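INPUT
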Amino acid sequence: MAPTRDVAVVSYASWTSPAELQRNEVEMLMPVVAEAVADSGLPREEIGFTVSGSCDYLIGAPFSFVSALDAVGAWPPIRESHVEMDAAWALYEAWIQIQKGSVDSALVYGFGKASPGDPSEIFTLQLDPYTVGPLWPDTISVAALQARAWMDRTGGTEHDLVEVGARSLRNWAWANGVDLEPDAVDELLAQPTIASPLRPGDVAPDTDGCAAIVLAAGDLAKELAAKRELRPAWITGIDHRIEPQALGFRDLSVSTSTALAALTAGVGDGPVDVAELHTQFSHEELILREALGLEDGANVNPSGGPLQANPPMAAGLIRIGEAAARVMDGEAGRAIAHASSGPCLQQNLVCVLEGEDA
Amino acid sequence: MSAERVAVVGVGQTEHRAVRADVSMVGLVREAAKRALADAEMTWTDIDAVVIGKAPDMFEGVVMPELFLADALGAAGKPMLRVHTAGSVGGSTAIVAAGLVQSGVHERVLTVAFEKQSESDAMWALTVPTPFQAPLVAGAGGYFAPLIRAYMQRAGAPADIGMMVAVKDRLNAIRNPYAHLKLPDIDMQMVEESPMLWEPLRYLETCPSSDGACAMVLASERVADAASRPPAWVQGTAWRSEPTLFARRDQVNPQAGLDCAADVYRQAGITNPREDFDCAEVYVPFSWYEPMWLENLGFAAPGEGWKLTQSGATAFDGDIPWNPSGGVLSSNPIGASGMLRFAEAANQVRGAAGEHQVEGARRALGHAYGGGSQFFAMWVVGADKP
Amino acid sequence: MADEVLVEHHILEYPGGYTRTVGPVIGRYLTGLRDGRLIAVRLGDGRVMIPPAEYDPVTGEDAGASDADFLEVGPGGTVTTWTWISEPRPKHPLDHPFAFALIQPDGADTAIVHVVDAGTENAMHTGMRVVPKWRDERVGDTLDIEAWVPEGTGGASAAKPATSTEPVTTMSSPVKLEYDIGAGVAATRFLLGLAQRRILGQRTGPGGDVYVPPRGSDPKTGTPTVDEVEVGPRGVVTTFCVVNLPFSPLAPEVPYVCAQILLDGADIALFGLVADMPAADVRQGLRVEAVWADEVGPTLESIKWYRPTGEPDAEYDSYKEYL
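OUTPUT
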């Protein structure tokens, strides 16, 4: 048995800000969902399935996903579900529902605000509450343990890390038409570490934002895309894997779960024109490149990636959206997207998107 | 394009208690999962993917606890998903897990739902005071009791129907070795004399707060056909959501519940629920939700649900037993409560429900709901292939 | 659009901290810490794992099922990776610069997360030898080790005898997170209205439904609401319950009445308390009006509760769609 339906991204919208202090989550999400739905060409009522990803703890209140439904227009009642995960996994769930054959289209969205709280403390609560949690190792410190493990294994340097951050900034400036003179790598290296070997430029910024994607199957996807003179971004492979969390149990210098997911998704079966990776710390890109088998010259995070904008619970879905957008506009023939969850790349999702009819 | 067939081939649950002081969260979820694996005659390595569900993370104060629990559930190197759809989550989680098989992606999926409410307390976790949010001025009961009053008014129901449900479900729980509340002396008088918390709702008409977990192994047709124990075939799954609040919303008989039932019945070929089902496991956290859901689910005409309860039709020896396990009124680990309904329904049609087996049950409904009666998840399971 | 939205500080903290029951295997580890010993478990393939788990992380099979599976490791250990924290956060275990590290105790095949109190970053390197510095008063918690210190620097201390011999079965887990929550644009308009003793809703469009409190969106369509409409302060009790426990700090006394109230001009009922009358006399259809607090401001507490107006009860048909 294997999934048999062709499924494609047919529209994508996102919005990010260092801090959205005016609008609440529903107000922030409403125009983005509306844009993705309108761009898909599907009437809202005809979308078969809706699924979202978010995290209650970001605003310290249970059921925060419930009010987000107000941004969707869930009337008449809709087929709907929610994952307490990055919305990239919501997209996986939508893909499953379409594979199952019960629906032909799906709306996926994710949202999260970093600004109300301190995500580097909030996500510390993901760690084993019995033996690790009491130490309150913030997420940057935990990531730094992985960064050094990578350096110790490979002989890589802090210079290598800083270069990732510098390139991310250059890519972001290019993608957004911003004229800036990025700091030289040496200047970045002169900054003090937050948690050695990580410096501010190695760490994704706190960001507020959201994203929405519409998926459609087969002929419907072709019809919808043709109307807009775009091509659908076909999902030709998607898989996700998780590792044991215990930081002292696994080899932090590699990402075995990414490699496994990449194998199933078929990353190595063709050229990679663009890779959008959910790199929340600079060293993660270096570990992921190896796990994904990317060549040295691979075009990684042309959007700038999470090191420039990292809204929690949406940043992984944004990777899929950005990769799909490059395929839809014809810039890339074959793109891969990656999303991550948990401490030190514990859980990883890999998605392959292609422009030619699958 | 039609989905692959899927069946329940293993069911496990914990002993549900106010405090499971003997286990960690790890021990709690493994207790249910290991029982489901044993029932399925499988080991951890047989499982392709794991789907975990629970209600708000504030119950335990661990963000996305499935991350630290993943390998405890044998998920190392495998796909793992975490579902959260409020009170309906146990049902939604089972539907997500079933989808992994129906889509043709996996053949053996372990799904687990849990809550360890005693790490904090349920009233706090469900009503954490939040800026700018109108506080639930009286806890969850204060939200639902006015709706119960509206139902009583609308249906002209006698005041003692809720008490009858409270007695019936607790009597059923005596036959369920896993149930939390065991009240062998329960009768109408005991319920009536229990404190009136949210008039018209008495203490013994409300659900307890439990620690507990539930697990199932879902398998493809090929695997289920080879199983030595009878599988429960999934004949239909459905979910529906509607907003919490909107103008002229009918919260007593919500459209999302009506639509969800109609969808799952269509898939399973159910035309007369009372006749076509042999029993039902329905999410009844407050006694009056039995007559309310009897109507919402089409077992009775609008305004007539209470008459079914009153006639004894939903009792263990009635023609359509509801909650033979004792239901949510007897055990309520919130995240798991919906999956317990789905799993108990499956065990009934497998003939594996033990002392609370409804004799000859061949088709059963599993139901869960959550939020402000706005999230619904249902499945129909049967002894026969769909 | 409001230029400034209201922001409120929010503390998420379960009073007294979470109580975790730790089960037999983690309990044995924590009991070991209380006793000044590092306890590991031997997995099925022979590897020695610390902290011990109830299962093999790779296979999922049970671990630690018998006493013979547990063994003491350390006390010395090796740093396998580390990070220097030059500016500790308030929640960190040490208030001066230190390292978080993975430390593999001698005899173990895995490492634990802990802190190394090494004085300066220059003293840290992967592969360095460290020993635990035990607290004198130990309770069965990860922090019973105050820190690890470089071997041979004299900072280590032999564990003093434990004060208890009972197995550790629970631990307390304080979690306090702080937030600054913004109300959003629509809710800010509503709250600023309350500060002027006005109840402001929003209409979904011409001839459309009026939502109060406004949520900024029409939940049925997901489109923005814009037109502001003043509603109330009178309305009708559509349904209610009598609460006999002191759940609400806002309630004047117990029993009190928690009602759904459809304000005049609104198309959705909101929750409110009904007071200034016997609870037993509250009924569906009762006409009520908002009672303002002596001091009003941009808070929900500006409306204390609702009291009867003395008008004739509303006909059931007039509000039955709002239940």
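end of record. The radius of gyration of chain A is 19 Å.
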